[in-house]
Structure formats: structure tokens, C-alpha cells
Amino acid sequence: METTRHFVATVYIVNEGATALHDHERLGMWLPPGGHVDRDELPHEAAIREVREETGLDVDLLAPVGDVTSETVRSIPQPQQFLLEDIDVYPTGEVGHQHVDFVYYGRVDSRDVRPDGDDEAAPARWKWFTRTELRENARLEPDVAEIGRRAIEAVEAAAVGGTTGAAGATETGDDR
């Protein structure tokens, strides 16, 4: 059996020590904003678009930008995590579909979720989780809780010493 793979972008958005997750109706799990990378998009562009569509919020990505450039090459904002996720697993153990997920962390200035896209989760399905709530909520997938805690820590650390980089991303690398 052939395994199909799609590229997706996810953003753990952080505001005042908490990250937003929505109760995904179809999947029955709490997830951050994210979705498929369109054919004409770069992963960080999809991440920003998905946050805007699903929450109505503008996000500042915490994504280091490399320093490799030439006439034909440029560095783009890098995800904090790069994951391979099994989406459709059959009883035989075979995997029918996977997501290659560019996972970003980002800062937003508000917790006022107002979806700006079609067929998005209603504001009532969103909840802001603190580090403690991520650790103690048994309904959360372990990877979602762990990455959520890491996102909160990274965004808080960047607020102390980070600078804003290209494409609304926060640059966390050294200044070579």
C-alpha cells in the first residue's frame, strides 16, 4: 500500500503565558491552529495564513532565519519542530496517510478569537491553556501538551531577548 503525504503548517500561538487550542470536532482532540500548505505557499506563509483564518489573530512567528543567501537561494523562517504524523493507520498497522508538519511557535497580542475563514471552529471551541493546564489535562495528546509547554517557554524567553526578523518572524540566532 502506498502512503500519501501532505505538507502542513501548525502554530502554537502564545499570549500571556498560555497557548490556544481548539476542540477539533471531526478528530475529537484538542489542536493548535494549522492546516495544509497550498501549492504556491512557503510553510511559514501557510502558518501565518492558518492562524489568521482559524483565529482572526495576527501572529509574530518565533522562527530563526538562516544566513545563507545567493542569487538563487535565500533562507526562510525555520520551524521549531519538524514532525511526521500518522493520520490514517489501518488495523494491519499500515499507514495510509501522513502529514509532514512544519511546527512554529508564535506570539499574538490578544486572546480574542474571531475566525476569519470559512468552516472554522467557533470561538467557543477555543481555550487558552497555561503550562499547568497542559501538564494536568488528561484529554490532551501528550505531544500537543509537550509542544504547547515548549512554545510558551520559548515565546516568554524571546520576549526577554529576541528581535523581530523577516516576514514577521522573531530571529533567535546570533548576529554573524
From TrEMBL:
GO terms for molecular function: hydrolase activity. PROSITE patterns: NUDIX, NUDIX_BOX. Transmembrane segments: none annotated. Gene3D superfamilies: Nucleoside Triphosphate Pyrophosphohydrolase (3.90.79.10). Keywords: Hydrolase. InterPro entries: Nudix_hydrolase, NUDIX_hydrolase-like_dom_sf, NUDIX_hydrolase_CS, NUDIX_hydrolase_dom. Pfam families: NUDIX. Residues 4-156 form the Nudix hydrolase domain. PANTHER family: ADP-RIBOSE PYROPHOSPHATASE, DIHYDRONEOPTERIN TRIPHOSPHATE DIPHOSPHATASE. This is NUDIX hydrolase. It comes from Halomarina halobia.
